[in-house]
Amino acid sequence: MKKINIAIDGPAGAGKSTISKLLAKRLGYIHIDTGAMYRAIGLKVLSQNIKSDDVDKILEILNNTEIEVKLINGNQLVFLDGEDVTDKIREPNVSMYASDVSKIKEVRQRLVKIQQELAKQKGVIMDGRDIGTHVLPDAELKIFLTATPEERAKRRFLELKEKGYEVDYYELLDEIKQRDLNDMTREFAPLRVAEDAVVIDSTNLTIEEVLEKVLELFYKVI
Ligand code: C5P
Fold first, then answer.
1. Across residues 96-108, what is the average pLDDT?
2. Where can this protein be found (predicted)?
3. What is the pLDDT confidence band of residue 70, given thresholds at 50, 70 and 90?
4. Distance between CA atoms of residues 100 and 179, nearest Å
């Protein structure tokens, strides 16, 4: 069977990663989580005590930053300057930094290059905010996965709580709304539904139901 590329975009907490991982397993495809790369830059900015709106400083450190993505047994590992930061980038305080650095055009250009390189071989499910519109405009299947901010904040809350983090639902809701706004209003490659994308609202759907819908679309394309 021929291999295609699948773009899965949408706002924070819509379930993109969960669905992409399950889909990758089902299809024997590779899953690439592009948010992890923005998180790695955000982590570097945070750990160097740089303000997330200090663009000059961020550009300066970008030139001295090495980001590497390795796929091991279907799991994506992210290396920042040679250090495995796969777990660290998931800490709740990294999210807002990732969102802020992702506004910077040069940051995006640098990461998009890596992403396009990874997708060359096909058989890739890439999730993010600008995959269908900008990174892989020729992806054969494009999904825009969304849910209400309240539902997304609830999912984030449960996910972080399970990992042992002390988080506040209302703070997460505010953060999600702020990140949505950042993503939708940035000048360069904002979050938008690609013209040829299929929108799936997962607010009232289970993970299995979303997966079924995506698989149905996949078999129509293939
Ligand atoms: O997907 P995740 O929430 O881990 O992404 C972290 C941040 O990275 C998002 O809030 C978003 O601003 C940014 N991002 C982006 N473009 C992508 C993926 C993520 O701007 N393709």
1. 97
2. Cytoplasm
3. very high
4. 8
Q: d(Cα 138, Cα 78) in Å, to the nearest integer? A: 26
In this prediction, what percent of the chain has a pLDDT beyond 90? 98
Q: Identify which of 111, 129, 159, 191 to mutate to test ligand 1's pocket (most ligand atoms within 8 A of the CB).
A: 129
| Helix axis angle, 149-162 to 169-185, nearest 10° | 120
Whether residue 14 is annotated as binding a ligand: the answer is yes
Greatest extent of the chain over all pairs of C-alpha atoms, in Å: 49
Distance 102 CA to ligand 1 centre (A): 7
Q: Please compute the mean of the pLDDT values over residues 164-178 and round it to a whole number.
A: 97
Measured from CB, residues less than 6 Å from any atom of ligand 1 are 12, 34-35, 38-39, 98-99, 102, 128-130, 179, 182-183
Q: How far is the CA of 1 from the centre of ligand 1 (A)?
A: 32
